[in-house]
Design goal:
Radius of gyration: 33 Å
Structural class: mainly alpha
Number of strands: 2
Largest sheet: 2 strands, antiparallel
Oligomer: single chain
Low-confidence stretches: 1-24
Strand content: under 5%
Order of helices and strands: HHHHHHEEHHH
Helix content: over 70%
Distance between the termini: 136 Å
Length: about 250
Amino acid sequence: MKKIFILLFTFLSLVSLSQITPRLPVLNKILVQELRIIFYDDQTYRVEAENAEKKYGFDSKEVKELWEIIRKKDVENLIKVKTILDKYGWIGPDEVGEEGSSTLFLVIQHSDQKTQEKYLPMMREAVKKGNAFASDLALLEDRVALGQGKKQIYGSQMNQDQETGKYTVSPIEDEANVNKRRAAVGLEPIEEYVKYWGIVYKPVMSNQQIKSQKSNSNKKNEEQGRNNLILIIVFVFILAALGLFIYRKKYKN
């Protein structure tokens, strides 16, 4: 009887501890390793291509060769990531770490339009559940929108001139409020973001901001006009007083 009581007490203690002790995330080591390799393949050659572009020019042989490798790696990586997504869904940082979760996004971001559109709804749901980052989703939303012939929402996508190699910001929907939308998903102001591509961004004002600016300008002009009128009146008064003083002095003598 005493042994049964001890066992029962131990069992209840373990149950109680399991309820009050927070569960630590258990990473899927196999997927973590696989996604780490995919991340390396996705990013390494892109960094090399970027460096080669700065050194040899964007249309150089070195850059073209690297982009051939990148395209092949993208195809291989997409097969692996699609297998993971179709089997497990959009896995979050608690299972594959932050790098692993972002790797899923990177590969889909670098895929074709049809694939992006297929997995976009899945990523939206993943963000709601905390399995993906809203900042990453914003970039995918922009790329899909541009691919559909629409304007981007968050201003994350650039366009490169094929002759000069210079970058410009692709068209943005409601551009005057883009920084509000960027802040809502954890992205830095677009003025800072585009500096990476050597772009100096000039903020766009909304119609309301333009009207407000014109209204303030008109008020300043009206105020300045009143001040000028007062100065003229004072000046005229001084001249009149001076003329009267001279007149009286002349005829008094």
